[in-house]
Specification:
This protein is α+β, with helices and mostly antiparallel strands and 223 residues long. It contains five helices and eleven strands, in the order H-H-E-E-E-E-E-E-E-E-E-E-E-H-H-H. The protein is 18% helix and 25% strand.
Length: 223
């Protein structure tokens, strides 16, 4: 099936208010390569996509990325990449600590607030890699899964457009195949809508499986 591409031209901008009141007004912001940590004073680049209805890539957006830690704040503009519908923002976070990063896509109110990213002091030893289920929890947010799914261990942007996943378990082999290609399962919804391809890397699928199937529950601060 050919993917629809949406181009926001000047005439199309006049339709944005109508989009906001209908199905066209939502999109998923998905981080491409989520870092486990950053180093204070050293640049780190976040790349992301914005997909309307979780499918069609949106080009020509004026997105911003905002990082906060206590009273410190870093605000940078995202720039379009050569690859269609992809954006990049390079942050230099000045202090060690936990930084909360929000990607504001520039399309309606579509945004993604990531779980805090640890920033270490320059010259410090790299922290140990996160456990698979914790890495999966961070990916569940960063990939935009929380836009449609609710899970008690991850904050949600919308979270009611797709099944609740708290406490659910799936056969790992099936879940690996489904996350790589959701079209293997026919839609059970009356409108025929089914989960779009999240375009995950194989290295991201395993931790997501560990998180979704995990029995561990963590406290998540209210947004």
């Amino acid at each position: 099936m050919k993917r629809k591409r949406w181009f926001l031209t000047i005439p199309a901008a006049a339709l944005l208010a109508a989009f906001a009141n209908g199905a066209g007004g939502w999109a998923i912001v998905s981080v491409q390569d989520l870092p486990d940590y950053a180093v204070a004073g050293q640049p780190v680049t976040l790349t992301y996509t914005v997909r309307q209805h979780a499918e069609g890539l949106l080009p020509n957006l004026n997105g911003t990325v905002i990082a906060r830690s206590g009273s410190a704040k870093v605000h940078v503009a995202a720039k379009p990449m050569k690859e269609f519908g992809h954006y990049a923002a390079t942050l230099t976070l000045p202090n060690a600590g936990d930084w909360t990063v929000t990607i504001e896509s520039g399309f309606m109110k579509a945004k993604n607030t990531l779980l805090p990213i640890k920033v270490i002091a320059a010259g410090s030893a790299a922290p140990a890699p996160p456990a698979p289920d914790d890495r999966g929890r961070r990916l569940f947010v960063a990939k935009g899964c929380v836009t449609c799914h609710t899970h008690s261990d991850a904050k949600s942007e919308m979270g009611d457009a797709a099944p609740e996943l708290t406490g659910k378990k799936f056969a790992p082999s099936y879940l690996a195949e489904f996350l790589a290609n959701p079209r293997i399962k026919p839609s059970s919804r009356p409108d025929g809508w089914q989960m779009p391809n999240p375009h995950l890397k194989q290295s991201e699928i395993a931790p997501l499986i560990a998180f979704i199937n995990s029995d561990k529950r963590v406290a998540v601060a209210a947004k």
